[in-house]
Amino acid sequence: MSGNRTFTMIKPDASEKNFCGAILKQIQEAGFKIIALKQTRMSLKQANDFYQIHSERPFYNDLCSFMSSGTIIPAILEKENAVEEFRKLIGATNPANAEAGTIRKNYAESIDKNAIHGSDSDENAKIEGNFFFTESEKF
Ligand code: ADP
Ligand code: MG
């Protein structure tokens, strides 16, 4: 059975453009409950750790430097079948391929500045949520 929580992060590009309110509204209107939420900024070291899974990919260094270049809004979200439902809501990695109405279609500018992160599995959702939030910050 699939889990009911996922992890997301509004990325520095969307944060810089003041899209956070609109994106959180879209997330809530899609039926996701906010379990944890904050505004913060990752150091390069934290971004390296968070994206360790991508360390062999050619875009790893650019990704980590971009993700530590400005503020982000990490959050834990709850909904039935959360991981899959949230990936549908955000759309394809490259906004050019994202379906109309998805968050990346609405707010992302490019494959590297693509506005938002969404976990790809229940296991990673848990790991990524725990990267940013302690138990007492989850409601
Ligand atoms: P997703 O975020 O859709 O799960 P991936 O896990 O494959 O996508 O990649 C993680 C992040 O790395 C993407 O959201 C994007 O910011 C960046 N990325 C992925 N592919 C590329 C690429 N070909 N060029 C530049 N950045 C990329
Ligand atoms: Mg991914």
Question: Could you give a short description of this structure?
Answer:
The chain has 139 residues and is of the alpha+beta class.
List its salient traits.
single chain; 139 residues; alpha+beta; Alpha-Beta Plaits; four-stranded antiparallel sheet; 14% strand; binds adenosine-5'-diphosphate; binds magnesium ion
Description of the molecule:
The chain is built from seven helices and four strands. With 139 residues, the protein is of the alpha+beta class. It has a single domain, classed as Alpha-Beta Plaits. A four-stranded antiparallel beta sheet has the order 2-3-1-4. α3 crosses α4. The relative contact order is 0.26. Adenosine-5'-diphosphate binds next to loops.
Could you give the topology of this structure?
Layout: E1 5-10, H1 12-16, H2 20-29, E2 33-37, H3 44-50, H4 60-67, E3 73-78, H5 82-90, H6 103-107, E4 116-118, H7 122-132
Antiparallel strand pairs: 1-3, 1-4, 2-3
Helix pairs in contact: 3-4
The structure holds adenosine-5'-diphosphate (ADP) and magnesium ion.
The site of adenosine-5'-diphosphate has 9 residues, from loops.
